[in-house]
Design goal:
Elements: H1 3-20, H2 24-29, E1 36-41, H3 48-52, E2 59-64, H4 74-86, E3 91-97, H5 101-106, H6 115-128, H7 130-134, H8 139-159, H9 162-171, E4 174-180, E5 187-189, H10 194-205
Parallel strand pairs: 1-2, 1-3, 3-4
Antiparallel strand pairs: 4-5
């Protein structure tokens, strides 16, 4: 695509918004008050606001390869801290998607350079659940199940953080694990029992 086309598209988008609401950008400039923090994959096929049917300002978004929440990643940690402590979001969604290139790459034996340490976290998820995953004969089904389990483990990583634990106690913040099925367009709630997980891990990860 010619880059000039992008700026032409931008002008058309502005005109479209102003034709429907002459104060659209004035209101947008007044600030944000999102109720959701969405942690998703950087995959170019996933459009967050469209996927959730929400408008700009209604969801705070963080994206990286394979929707990860590693403890040592200052980027995701800063986003979580800002969203929970300052924006006061009450819902955090970790959303994976089927046919995830990051998940598939993690299961290759190839040396992927700088990606290696990042993808190692996904390999750790496989290691934790290898008995279940190794029983799945179809490779694509196994990858899809790993997507589910990766979402679950990243939600667990969220629950381990001090900001999330405090907001859970103080105002009932909730964590959700979702998957977007690119093949059908469906958004799937994995219905992970976080109350049980929270109770199970709190002996080790409880933070005052």
């Amino acid at each position: 695509m010619d880059l000039s086309k992008i700026f032409e598209n931008n002008k058309k988008w502005i005109q479209n918004k102003l034709s429907k609401d002459s104060n659209y950008f004035k209101k947008l400039n007044e600030g944000q008050n999102p109720k959701f923090l969405y942690i998703g994959c950087s995959d170019s096929r996933v459009s967050v606001e469209n996927l959730m049917g929400l408008k700009p300002g209604e969801v705070f978004v963080h994206r990286n390869i394979a929707n990860m929440v590693p403890a040592i990643d200052l980027n995701s940690a800063s986003v979580i801290e800002y969203a929970v402590e300052h924006l006061k979001v009450n819902h955090i969604v970790v959303c994976g998607h089927y046919s995830c290139g990051g998940v598939k790459a993690a299961m290759q034996s190839a040396d992927l350079g700088l990606l290696n340490p990042w993808l190692r976290y996904i390999r750790d998820v496989y290691r934790l659940h290898k008995d279940e995953l190794n029983k799945i004969e179809d490779e694509n089904e196994r990858y899809d199940r790993l997507v589910d389990l990766n979402v679950q483990e990243q939600c667990v990583n969220l629950i381990k953080t001090a900001a999330v634990q405090k907001a859970y106690r103080d105002r009932g913040l909730k964590v959700y694990g979702w998957v977007f099925d690119i093949k059908t367009g469906n958004l799937i709630d994995l219905k992970i029992d976080f109350e049980h997980i929270l109770t199970d891990i709190m002996e080790i990860y409880h933070l005052d």
